[in-house]
């Protein structure tokens, strides 16, 4: 069976893409699914969040530049969970201005090999350049984390426009879900934004909301997922619920 390739995407910065990539993928791995997470952000935060700190190690950068194969860059970091780090040359790919359409297909070609995975997640950078184009070429599935503020809502309209253009150009239709991330239960604006997106995308907003929590902000600095750090916390439970929602939504 081919893995589901999921781009975790939002051009807006700091909305919870990496936090979702880390904790959703680990929750799924703990449920028994085989998962690979790829860091497509030159910032390299995904590796740091999993406690893999060497920024000089090559990763998906050299695969996309044709220097090596994906299998050589894939490391098991937890049971059922593998990581491909960004690598120091990923920034070069963002700046490639030769290669025409082919520049957008580097990741897709790398992922075309056989895989035992159920899911491959791509943690995207906060931009809309070549790297994100590569994620959209490779994926058939998109998960959009967003936050409960007005500009996030504006950004979502822009992002949906970008996705539509890709659908038209590539002649495909993505499975798209939204997850409300960094949700503040006490802020009226957060609740309003959640209600607005539920109204506009009634079937696409996942039921589980990831609440703002100090524990989640502590995790990257410790190199631990929330499931490593505090498996009994409500934040870990949020991500277990999200994993369940995500799996069910992909069965439809
Ligand atoms: N639910 C949450 N509660 C508290 N802090 C959070 C939560 N989600 C994310 N954070 C923190 O907010 C910051 C931004 O989150 P994260 O790095 O996941 O966003 P991102 O969308 O990947 O950012 P970038 O666009 O820079 O890649 C991080 O410091 C993270 O620890
Ligand atoms: Mg990130």
CATH-defined fold name:
Rossmann fold
CATH class: Alpha Beta
Task: Summarize model confidence as the mean pLDDT.
Answer: 94
Strand content: 5-15%
Please give the CATH architecture: 3-Layer(aba) Sandwich
Determine the CATH superfamily.
P-loop containing nucleotide triphosphate hydrolases
Gross geometry: globular
What is the terminal separation in angstroms?
A: 17 Å
> Hetero groups bound?
adenosine-5'-triphosphate, magnesium ion
Series of secondary-structure elements, N-terminal to C-terminal: EHEHHEEHHEHEHEHHHH
Number of strands: 7
Class derived from helix and strand content: alpha/beta
Strand order of the largest sheet: 3-4-2-5-1-6-7
Domains, number: 1
User: Share of helix among residues?
Assistant: 40-55%
Low-pLDDT segments, ≥5 res: none
Give a quick account of the main beta sheet: strands, pairing sense, barrel closure: 7 strands, mixed
**Helix count, per DSSP?**
11
Helix and strand topology:
Blueprint: E1 4-8, H1 17-30, E2 35-39, H2 45-49, H3 60-64, E3 75-78, E4 81-84, H4 90-94, H5 106-111, E5 119-123, H6 130-138, E6 141-146, H7 150-170, E7 175-180, H8 188-200, H9 214-222, H10 226-229, H11 234-251
Parallel strand pairs: 1-5, 1-6, 2-4, 2-5, 6-7
Antiparallel strand pairs: 3-4
Helix pairs in contact: 1-11
The structure holds adenosine-5'-triphosphate (ATP) and magnesium ion.
